[in-house]
Amino acid sequence: MGCGGSKEVTPGAPGAGAGAGGVKTVTAGSDAQGGSATRQAGGGAPAKEQPANLTSKYELGKTLGSGSFATARVATNRETGAKVAIKTLMRNHDNFDKDLLEHEIAVMKKLDNEYCIRLLEVMEDSKAVHLVEELATGGELFDRIVEIKHFSEADCAKVIKQVILGIAHMHSLGACHRDLKPENLLMLSGDKNDEGYMKVKIADFGLSSLRPVQDASMSTVCGTPDYLAPEVIMIAAEGPRSRRKYDAKVDVWAVGVICYTMICGYPPFWSENMAEMLHLIKHGEYTFDGPSWATVTQETKDFVAFLLTTDPKKRPTSEEALKHPFLNSASLSSTSLDNTGHLKQYVESRRTGKIFRIVRVITRMEIASRRMSLAEGGSTPGASAIGGNASGNQSGDEEKGGEAKADEGGGGG
C-alpha cells in the first residue's frame, strides 16, 4: 500500500460514498493543517472519532496512481489550502483486506519522523476507507537521480543517511519496514528550488511488522526478490518447516542494495534467472568491478560491504550504520558518478514487469524443496532449493536456524 505516490490502488472514484451520510474520521499524528500533533498519550491509543465529510473538508484533485484495490489523489484542505494525498480503498473490492489495512494504519500512527510519510487522519464511510497522508510530489528516488544527471558519492551519502534515519526511527518503535526498495522512496518536492527537492520520504508500510522491541524476530516471507536479505531467502527456500527467524536488519540489507544500485546504476545481485539471482543473494556474491566502480572511493565501498554482510548477526543495526564514516565524511567526492545510463535502464526494466513478485518465487522454491525432500526419503531439506548450503560467512547458529515460529502476526506477504 502506497502513499503520496501510491502505486497499489483501484479504479474506483476516490470520493465514492463520501457525500452519502456521515464519514468517520480518526486524527493521527499532526492534523491536515500541519499543526501540532493530536495523537493521544500512550502512542498507540486510538484517536477520538468524530463526524465528518470527506468532500466538505477536502477538494479532490488529480489522480496520483491506481492499483489493485485503491486510488490515490491529490487533495486540498478547503480551510487551510494545505495539499495532501488521499488514498481511497473500496470495501467491496475482492482485494480489500481489513486486517492488513488496520495494520498499516497502526504502523503509520506510531511514526513521527521527517523521513517517513505521515498519516494525517483516517476517514471512512460505508463504501470506502480514506487515508489522508502527507503529500510527496517529487516522484521516486531513482527517477530523481536520472533526472538531475549529476549525482556524486557525497550526494549518495546525504540521501542514504536520510533513509537510514527513517528506518532507525521505525526500528526504535519496534517496527520493521520489510519492503524497502526504490519505488518506496519518494521525493518530497518536484521543485528544483525547494529544499524538499532532494529530501527522501519512506513510503508504503503495508508489509511492515509492528512488534514489541523485546520480541523482534519474524519468520513471514515478504518483500521484493532483489531486495530480500539472505536470511529471508533461506526461510523461503525451506518452506513452512523452516525454523529460521529474522529481525529488523533485513531493512539494513535492503538499504545496502539500494546504495550499491545508486552508485553504479545496476543492482549487486542480478540474473534473468530468478533462482540464480537468489543464489547470489544468499551467498553474498557481488563485486566492485566494472568501469562504474573505477573511481569510487574505498570508504564508499566499505560502507556498502558493511550493509551487505550476509550473516545477520554481524550485519550492523540501523543505529550502527549511522556511525559509519561514509555518512559523516566531509571529504567525499563531488564528481559525478557513472550511473545514470544504467540506472535509467534498471528502472525501466522494473516497470515493464521483468521483476517478479516474491509470491511466484516462493511457490517454485517450495515445490522444488518438497521434491528434494521426497527424493531424500522424506527428510526435511537441509539445503536451499536455490543453491547449496549457506556460505562460509554465515554463522553456525544461522545455519541451524532458531526455534520454530509459524508467523509473527505482522503484515502478510
TrEMBL record:
Gene3D superfamilies: Phosphorylase Kinase, domain 1 (3.30.200.20), Transferase(Phosphotransferase) domain 1 (1.10.510.10). SUPFAM superfamilies: Protein kinase-like (PK-like) (SSF56112). Keywords: ATP-binding, Nucleotide-binding. SMART domains: S_TKc. Residues 382-395 have a biased composition (Low complexity). Residues 58-327 form the Protein kinase domain. Residues 1-53, 373-413 are annotated as: Disordered. ATP binds at K87. Residues 397-413 have a biased composition (Basic and acidic residues). The keyword Nucleotide-binding applies. It comes from the Eukaryota. GO terms for molecular function: ATP binding; protein kinase activity. This is Protein kinase domain-containing protein.
